[in-house]
Amino acid sequence: MSNKAITDVFFDLDHTLWDFDKNSALAFEKIFKINALDVDSQQFLRHYEPINLAYWKLYREEKIDKESLRFGRLNDAFLAIDVKLDREVIYKLSEDYITHLTTFNHLFENTIEILDYLRLKYNLHIITNGFKEVQHKKLSQSNIDHYFKTVTNSEMVGVKKPNPQIFNYAIDLAKTSVNQSVMIGDNYEADILGAHNIGMDTIFFNVNNQNVDSDIKQIDNLIHLKRYL
Fold first, then answer.
1. What CATH code is assigned to 8-19+107-227?
2. Helices (H) and strands (E) in the chain — how many of each?
3. Span 31-67, pLDDT tens digits
4. CB of 87 closer than 8 Å to CB of 25
5. Chain centre distance of CA 38
6. Helix ranges (DSSP H) in the chain
7. Would the pTM count as exceeding 0.85?
8. 20-101: what fold?
């Protein structure tokens, strides 16, 4: 990548800058205590994490709505550990989870360092499939909102990554062009293939060491963005 051509850097938020799994685990521990639920949070999370990812895939593909995602991922995870809860309890847990999730704001290693480095040379932006009200809180409460000139979320656009519309919307909002932009994210399908499909350059944040095309630029620590930018 000739970084002279790049003026604008777009980041995904969850699992890329904001450590979703760590913050989510802490939120569940807290809401289980609040609701006096005698559940082994580690056992719950082993089931919840893959279930949550599967629900987000359905949500990205427009197969379910926000409420179905929020209810279904919890209900399925409790059923997987043989805990039967009333619908009302699951709805309350779902609300409590959203309320308390953004009170934990662990970032991935070197997030602040790399944002400080990049903002001197590039305009920085966010493109996220996450829910508007929650993503805003994550950015402000983890104290990284000031780094980003624009934040595009799927609820503003009405479609989700990898749909090309969300990338084109974000580029228009940033007042830049595809060939001056690069997308950085952890989800190969949503972030990398989605951006590639409109001709945008990409860097894959491959924290889980997925086996992907060797032509794809990839890093396993955010500080390694310095190799490319």
1. 3.40.50.1000
2. 9, 6
3. 999 999 999 999 999 999 999 999 999 999 999 999 9
4. no
5. 29
6. 20-34, 41-60, 66-80, 87-101, 111-118, 132-141, 154-157, 164-173, 194-196
7. yes
8. DNA polymerase; domain 1 (1.10.150)
